[in-house]
Design brief:
Layout (H helix, E strand, L loop, with lengths): L1 H22 L1
């Protein structure tokens, strides 16, 4: 379960950076 949570956090961070670059 902990591994799934870690993957979820990493995915969210990746999406946030992608969106930030898209806005810029």
């Amino acid at each position: 379960m902990r591994t799934y949570f870690l993957v979820l956090v990493v995915s969210v961070e990746f999406i946030r950076e992608h969106l930030k670059m898209g806005l810029m």
